[in-house]
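Figure 2 data, in text form.
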Amino acid sequence: MAGARREDDVVRIWLFLCALVVPTNVAAQSQDALVMSLIFDECLGYVQEGNAPFTDYELQPARLSPARLEGSAQAASMFDGAYEARWGTDPELDMAFCIVDRKDTAQAALGVIREGFLTQLDERATAHGLVNEDPAPKLSTEFWNVWQRPGQTRGLQIVFAVTGTEGPIAELGVFSVSVPIEDRLSDVGTGGSLLVGSG
């Protein structure tokens, strides 16, 4: 089936560490540019170059799990609790990671245009040398979308999934950006200070 349901993807381990994404009861608004910025400016900038992520966002402390990541990773609630971000390194998996996933479904989700967003995401990922070798036929809750280096199962990788009901606006469910620690352009630990108060 299209949409990359591959058991050998290292990042899949991280996706299962996220809470299960369930549909929201608050209508999402289209925020394509914001979601793209979170993926490429914040998370990709962190895992590849060591830029401290989310410094322009209002964050609140969140419980980090699993506990073995204490000291090597951080967690924060964002967008009024609608989402949670986790970023840092996992010495056990030898990966640097940045994940944003849906949490409080009573808060409005970040929405993307169902027709066209996948193309935008693919174009940006391609510009970074990543390909989706098993593309989903559409942006749907039925499919995961995975971009990685051609022919590699361990390397820089972006995973993206939506939630919510079918309609013109899809809701961001979870995305992750990860890279083996040895492939990072900068050795940066956990990416700066724990939290910022507001943007």
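Caption note: The chain has three helices and nine strands.
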